[in-house]
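PROTEIN DESIGN WORKSHEET
SECTION A - STRUCTURE
LENGTH: 149
TOKENS:
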């Protein structure tokens, strides 16, 4: 198993072909004290399977939420507008010069404190803009600030 969250992200970036990792995904992973990096790698593998489904532009017969849940992910479709407005810079990532808004995310772990909970925040591109259709990983690790933090 990976020894750190960063190692989990590096392995996923090397192995999985349906996720695109931003620089901030690696930076946030390097800063993460989450104690179970193997859980991160497992979630990224499941997200890669979700990305494979999403890659089909004709659709896959269900919503991302339903597909993610069926893959065993604790999926959150977005963050609140209040959280996004209070912390706009925290919910963005840059990829190939494009600004990505992060919202959909996967919750990992339970309890309190950054050692026990982690999040993987994504940008979902539908292919209608400058970015190719796909799932872009923008942040891995600490729970970003929201209305509860």
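SECTION B - SEQUENCE
RESIDUE ASSIGNMENT:
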């Amino acid at each position: 198993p990976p020894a750190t969250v960063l190692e989990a992200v590096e392995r996923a970036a090397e192995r999985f072909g349906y996720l695109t990792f931003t620089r901030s995904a690696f930076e946030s992973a390097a800063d993460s004290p989450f104690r179970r990096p193997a859980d991160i790698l497992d979630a990224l593998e499941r997200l890669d399977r979700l990305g494979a489904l999403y890659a089909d532009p004709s659709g896959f017969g269900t919503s991302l939420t339903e597909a993610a849940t069926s893959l065993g992910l604790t999926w959150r479709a977005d963050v609140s507008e209040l959280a996004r407005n209070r912390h706009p810079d925290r919910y963005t990532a840059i990829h190939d010069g494009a600004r990505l808004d992060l919202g959909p995310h996967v919750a990992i772990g339970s309890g309190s404190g950054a050692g026990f909970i982690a999040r993987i925040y994504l940008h979902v591109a539908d292919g209608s803009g400058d970015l190719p259709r796909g799932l872009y990983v923008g942040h891995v690790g600490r729970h970003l600030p929201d209305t509860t933090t």
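SECTION C - NOTES
The mean pLDDT is 93.
The first strand starts at residue 19 and ends at 21.
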